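Morning, I've got a small favour to ask if you have a moment. I've been staring at a protein lately and its backbone has me curious. You're getting the sequence in one-letter code plus the fold written as tokens. I've dropped the whole record in just underneath, so have a look:
=====
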Amino acid sequence: MEGRLIYLIGPSGSGKDSVLDAAREALAKRGVRIARRVITRSAEAVGESAEAVTHDEFDRLERAGAFAMSWRANELAYGIPIQIDQWLAAGEDVLVNGSRGYLERARQRYPDLLVVLLSVRPEVLRQRLLKRNRETPEQIEARLARNARFEDSLDELFLLDNSGDLQETVDKLLRIIDR
């Protein structure tokens, strides 16, 4: 039996990496693998434990077919290793930190995709993004506006609010996966 692909999405600053880190052990006990992304962000950048590569190396890997999914956003390139297809074929569930912009293409490739949208109240997200200090206040406001439009346009997904306690969010994620 084919495994299930769990596609976690949410705006930058919603806490996807924190949720994944906090849920890692419980997910492993359920047999859910977390795919490690390949990103063209510097290794020193704060955030997820991704594999950092140069833009040239990313392009080479992409041309070689190393990714099951790949996209560009915010001047970075992101890839999900092709290895997830082997895990899924072996009947393992796989969770990926995906992209909202790539969602439709992901659904085409993986029609049984379980989509989980991590959301955060706008005022909480604004504070997280300001604290992170990667973008100007104007860029943050534009990001918040895009996020509101995106959430209004979606269907067939599980909405997971991460505005409060991290453990509550993790517990809700696990309940979604256990369905």
About this structure: The helical segments are 16-29, 55-63, 83-89, 103-109, 122-132, 137-152, 166-178. The radius of gyration is 16 Å. The first helix runs from residue 16 to 29.
